[in-house]
Amino acid sequence: GVLDMAGNAAEWVQDWYNPNDYRTATLTNPQGPERGAIKAMRGGSWLKPAISLRTTDRDWGTMDSRPSGTGFRCARDAY
């Protein structure tokens, strides 16, 4: 299993980022915008305040940025 993963690093995800996208997105598996200039990150790292350690915390970065405390996780859909 997977244990104790919160707070180690914020993680890049596949989705493009749009701060207003969740207003109209589906509730189940929202895909985010089809394209964009900035990518989404989820969760928080030990460098951020405790409120950012939630998996629902969203942040963003440009494709060429390397924010401290950010990593990535390889994943695939379960279906």
Specify the overall morphology.
globular
Please describe the biggest sheet, giving its number of strands, its sense, and whether it closes into a barrel. Answer: 4 strands, mixed
Mean pLDDT: 82
Q: What is the terminal-to-terminal distance?
A: 19 Å
Order of helices and strands: EEEE
- Determine the fraction of residues in helical runs and give it as a percent range: under 10%
Number of distinct helices: 0
Rg computed from alpha carbons, rounded to a whole number of angstroms: 13 Å
3D architecture notes:
It is globular and about 30 Å long. It has a domain at about 10-20 and about 35-70. The chain has no helices and four strands. It is mainly β. The protein has strands at about 10-15, 40, 60, 70.
Write the layout of secondary structure elements.
Elements: E1 10-16, E2 38-42, E3 58-62, E4 70-72
Parallel strand pairs: 1-4
Antiparallel strand pairs: 1-2, 2-3
Characteristic terms for this protein:
globular; mainly beta; 4-stranded mixed beta sheet; 0% helix; 79 residues
Compact summary:
By secondary structure, this protein is mostly beta strands. It has a domain at about 10-20 and about 35-70.
